[in-house]
Amino acid sequence: MVKAIRFHKPGGPEVMQLEDIELAAPAAGQIQIRHTAIGLNYIDTYHRSGLYPLALPHGLGMEGAGTVAAVGDGVRDFAVGDRVAYAAPPPGSYSEARNIEASKVVKVPAGVDDKTAAAMMLKGMTAQYLIRQVYKVQAGDTILIHAAAGGVGLIVCQWAKALGATVIGTVGSDAKAELAKANGCDHPIVYSRDDFVEKTLEITGGKKLPVVYDSIGKDTWPKSLDVLRPRGMMVSFGQSSGPIPPVDLGIFAAKGSLQFTRPTLMTFTATKAGLDEMAADLFAAVSSGKVKINIEQTYALADIVKAHQDLEGRKTTGSTVILP
After folding, report:
1. 38 close to 94: Cβ distance less than 8 angstroms
2. Could you say which of 1.10.10.650, 3.90.180.10, 3.40.50.620, 3.50.50.60 is the CATH number of the domain covering 2-121+294-323?
3. How many CA atoms lie within 13 A of 76 on its CB side?
4. Per CATH, domain 139-262 is 3.40.50.720
5. Is-contact 180 171, C-beta < 8 A?
6. What is the pLDDT, as a whole number, of residue 319?
7. Model confidence pLDDT, tens digit, residues 119-128
């Protein structure tokens, strides 16, 4: 038996329960991971609330790190005792241990500790595809990242700055502005006080941007389009304030032949080769010191309700780790 968070109906944080479950031996192609640290991500709240429906009852959590406890038939790339990490479906990382397809897991290099690995996989790999693949940030670019003091935001700020970009970021408070600035955000904008469109154009002297990265959704749409230059790219990768309402596609023509994309991490990590390449790029950025993973909060697995309340209440910054 292992302890795991399960939920039997969609709803608020209170629907999550800590339960004892039977864990079978890993099937062919799977490995069994004994978790040492677990990542908390906003997508977990979408699964819990039913926005992204799951067959119930179900576990939660898309990200974790730990040690390989057993390997199934046909697994050649991993052995018992290997340190590993992942950010992949199906949800189930909120647990002491779990089985998962070996093709979704990567080895953790010696220079990265387990908490960092658990905190960096989903958010760090998201940052990787955003600034290294969806729109390749170049030296001299000026970019806008919403929720700059969040887990993905802090990584994007640091990494884009290391690539030679100027980073503008929106945040919810002066404290978050200080945190973002300390992590590579050149121009934090407190959106509750300043209009981010006016402030962005003031910062750039009226010059519009090649890209906006947005995980907020409804509250930042469609004003984000007003800071994009002709043929600029709007990258929507989350919806913490709610989904973007139906859109008249003509708006992209009217505002300058804009591009819009709604990428997901799982599309970019669908192949083992793609996963390994992205992870290597991320681990190199962290190991070099160019990117620091800011673990600002930790919670016990038994306190997962409080962790979700704080996350949805915008009381968290950076990355959060759950300890089993």
Report:
1. yes
2. 3.90.180.10
3. 1
4. yes
5. yes
6. 87
7. 999 999 999 9
